[in-house]
Amino acid sequence: MRKIIHVDMDCFYAAVEMRDNPQLRDIPIAIGGSRERRGVISTANYPARKFGVRSAMPTGMALKLCPHLRLLPGRFDAYKEASAQIRDIF
Where is the UmuC domain (predicted)? Predict the structure, then answer.
């Protein structure tokens, strides 16, 4: 019998970044594209969410809400590796 399991990993990209760099845990961070290139936020950690920063928000708007937001580019190889480690559990 085939099983389907849904695992919701909240702010996953940000969680991987904070795992790899613990200094990021208590500051507002977001993963996304640059303001100059009209980027969009992929995800934000909880300190950033307290300022209203959300997924799919234009980066420029996120930086207006949280001027000290630390914007990180996506590291998709790291996210794929972390995702594979989690899938191995199941």
Answer: 4-90
